[in-house]
Design a protein that fits this description.
The complex is a heterodimer. Chain A has two domains: 309 residues, no CATH class; 54 residues, no CATH class. Chain A has ten helices and 22 strands. In chain A, the strands form six sheets. In chain A, strands 5, 6, 18, 19, 20 and 21 form a six-stranded antiparallel β-sheet that branches. In chain A, strands 13-17-14-15-16 form a five-stranded antiparallel β-sheet. In chain A, strands 8-7-11-12 form a four-stranded parallel β-sheet, with helices on one face. In chain A, helix 6 packs across helix 7. Chain A is globular, with a radius of gyration of 21 Å. Chain A starts with a strand and ends with a strand. Chain B has a domain of 124 residues. Chain B contains five helices and eight strands; from the N terminus they run αββαααββββββα. In chain B, a hairpin with a 2-residue loop joins strand 3 and strand 4. The two termini of chain B are 34 Å apart. Chains A and B meet through helix 5, helix 6, helix 7, strand 8 and strand 9 of A and helix 1, strand 8 and helix 5 of B.
Amino acid sequence: MLRIPIKQRLDWQQQAAEYGFQFHTMYGEPYWDESAYYQFSLQQIENDIEDPTAELHQMCLQAVEKIHADEQWLQKFRIPEQHWDLIYHSWRDEEPSLYSRLDLVYDGKSTAKLLENNADTPTSLYESGFWQWLWLEQQVDRGNLPRHADQFNSVQEKLVNRFSEIAAYYQINQMHFACCQDTDEDRGTVQYLQDCAEAAGIRSDFIFIEDIGLGDTGVFTDLKDNPITDCFKLYPWEFMLREAFGDALSEAGTHWIEPPWKALLSNKALLPLLWQMFPDHPNLLPSWFAEDTPALSTGKWIKKPLFSREGANISLIDNGKQTDLSDGPYGEEGFIVQAYQALPQFAENYTLIGSWLIDDMPAGISVREDSSMITQDLSRYLPHIIA
Amino acid sequence: MTQKRSRHIDLFKMRKGFMLKPLAVGIAGIMSSGCADDRQDAQIYTSVDDCKRDYPDAVEKCEAAYQTALDEAARTSPRFSTESDCEYEFGANQCREMNSGSGSFFMPFMAGYMVSQLLSPRPYYSQPIYTSYSPYSPFRSRWITADGYVFDGDIRKRNYKVSPSVYKPKPTVTRTVNRGGFGSSVRAKSSWGSSSRSGGWGG
């Protein structure tokens, strides 16, 4: 695993405009960064990332099974009791999942460790599935990378296949796609998924989350009063369950992607549960609910809210002394602690690997860099190759 | 050696000549791809007279279908903030200015309309169709729908097989009684602090 500088494509910004990649620069800071790339060996990709990703996902599915077997876990996960049935039914009916992203600490030498599972609303999908793919093809064509260079990235191919399977499962050829207003990044991610769905023969209609309506017959509606029967939503379940329309969810009968059972995997309570089920698993970090942690007075721990986004409300506990690393609006539902694992540094940057799953198949990685230890939404995205 | 990346991506289809439209798009349901067996014949007409020639006994339906397509076009056509952006995609003199409550924008002229099942006792389908005269556009001389679906063949092709967009009967709704029941957490969390991050609930 190496970080190697490379010439940027002179026309990449022009191409970004043509392809509709509008959030390559965010808040005035570069987000897409092709001044360097990461190089992995095939062995590193397959043995250290791909196989553990598949295994971790299977462990997560076993965790969902365990949660349903014992309702004290649903309480620990702070799932509102009126929604337990919704989640259980979606699991029992095997409602199909589309995608997830596992965040891994990996330095090219040591065993990859799971930081968290973005199982419900992962982003940076377009950059991973399409944009870094295009970068590789063009850098090879232009002679800046060797012909044999490859990339761990079958994201787009697998997304299209998965949409075909979902269409067959629900017997549909139309879906709604939804995200919140005022965010180019989320809208871009959803547009990409619409493109993949259309490639699978599914017609897509877009609606903002805030515009969703409730019809007189109890179904959700779009702005034309058409029923929303099947919907991809880039909006967290933990919000939906607690909002005004949460009570209408079970009657409305919408098939959501991700399905409600994914609320259990995107929850950070998953981490202590996994540690309890698979103690000392090489890809896991020791993890506990904050309220029943054995020994916080020694060692280094990271404290995170059960629900949080983009690295908000994280604290470091070092030999019992707590320092806040980031602030934010989260934490009212409780916290977990996880053994501190330093991110590897490459050229002064802290590097985090995002490992994609389409359904249960490992499908590729994204590499993010940050000048701080916590990867937030301002972290830069760098492409990678296998060579 | 097995390749670890996607074998092929259709770059033509990944191009976004159209700006992302923050509107609930979606048009009277015709879908042209798909693997369904229940595909139906559909025709593209560039004028009401074309349609009337094919359906001399259904002149009123031709006119009604045209009107439906025009109404759809006004609502769902691609929108551009400047005339030059619109003309870059659709060609010189192919765009008109429209005014809405929130200001003015430019949209291409409807180039034709696609109809299916005009004679059927069931509802017929009609939707606006566009084409581009711009040398810079991947849509030049192709038929496209308002949301950017590109039909195969060039504009000489007028007959297509399409499948109705509804496989399963949709539940009925007569009216929406309430809107805005999702999204409140975002407002609450984004009003927090002085964060530069105004949105984005992905992780």
